[in-house]
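Field log, afternoon session.

UNIT: design team B
ACTIVITY: writing a sequence onto a fixed backbone
BACKBONE:
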C-alpha cells in the first residue's frame, strides 16, 4: 500500500516538475530574468536555451499527465460545469488564434492569448474532479491570471485597430479547432464531451 502510494507520488511529481519548468520559463520576462540572461549570454543563445528548456518542460507535463492518469477523484463536478466548458472552450480558442492575427479581437482584448488560456484552463478546472487534472489546469489558470494582471497593469495598445477579415479568420479557425477537439476528445483524452462523437465517459473534460 505504501509502495503504491509512493509510486503515485513519483508519477505526480513528473507532472508537477514539468509544470514548474514550462510555466517557470514563461515567467522569466515578468520576473526580470530574461533581461538579465540576455545581457549575459545574448539574445540568440537565450532563445535557444528558452526553447529547449520549455520543450523539456512541456514534454514532462504530457508524460506526467499520462503517468498520473487516472488519479484520485477529489470531487464530482456538476453537469453545468461541462456545459460551461462547451461554451468557454470555443471562445478561448478563438482568442488564442486571434493572438496571431491583426484583428479587432486582438486590439480590443490586448492579451488574447493569455485571456484564452485563462478561459480554457478555468473551464477545465471547474469541469474536472481528478487531482492530476486539478493540478494541471489549476497551474495554467493561476499562471495566466498572473500574466493578465501584469499585462493589463503595464498598459499599452496595438498601433492599428485590426481588420474584419482577420476577425473572421480567427473565428472560423478557432471554432473549427474547437469542433475537431470536441469530436475527437474521447480518442485523445478518454472522455467524451459530445454524444454524437462517442459514448459518454466519466465526468470531466
Amino acid at each position: 500500500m505504501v509502495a503504491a502510494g509512493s509510486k503515485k507520488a513519483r508519477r505526480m511529481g513528473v507532472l508537477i516538475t514539468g509544470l514548474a519548468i514550462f510555466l517557470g520559463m514563461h515567467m522569466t520576462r515578468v520576473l526580470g530574468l530574461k533581461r538579465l540572461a540576455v545581457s549575459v549570454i545574448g539574445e540568440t543563445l537565450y532563445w535557444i536555451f528558452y526553447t529547449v528548456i520549455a520543450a523539456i518542460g512541456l514534454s514532462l507535463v504530457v508524460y506526467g499527465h499520462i503517468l498520473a492518469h487516472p488519479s484520485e477523484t477529489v470531487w464530482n463536478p456538476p453537469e453545468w460545469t461541462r456545459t460551461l466548458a462547451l461554451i468557454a472552450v470555443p471562445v478561448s480558442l478563438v482568442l488564442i488564434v486571434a493572438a496571431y492575427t491583426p484583428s479587432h479581437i486582438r486590439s480590443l482584448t490586448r492579451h488574447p492569448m493569455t485571456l484564452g488560456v485563462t478561459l480554457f484552463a478555468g473551464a477545465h478546472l471547474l469541469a474536472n474532479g481528478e487531482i492530476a487534472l486539478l493540478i494541471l489546469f489549476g497551474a495554467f489558470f493561476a499562471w495566466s491570471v498572473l500574466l493578465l494582471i501584469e499585462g493589463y497593469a503595464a498598459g499599452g495598445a496595438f498601433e492599428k485597430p485590426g481588420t474584419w477579415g482577420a476577425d473572421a479568420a480567427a473565428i472560423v479557425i478557432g471554432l473549427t479547432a474547437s469542433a475537431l477537439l470536441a469530436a475527437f476528445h474521447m480518442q485523445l483524452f478518454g472522455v467524451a464531451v459530445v454524444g454524437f462523437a462517442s459514448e459518454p465517459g466519466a465526468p470531466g473534460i
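LOG NOTE: The two ends are 30 Å apart (CA to CA).
NEXT ACTIVITY: expression trials, pending approval
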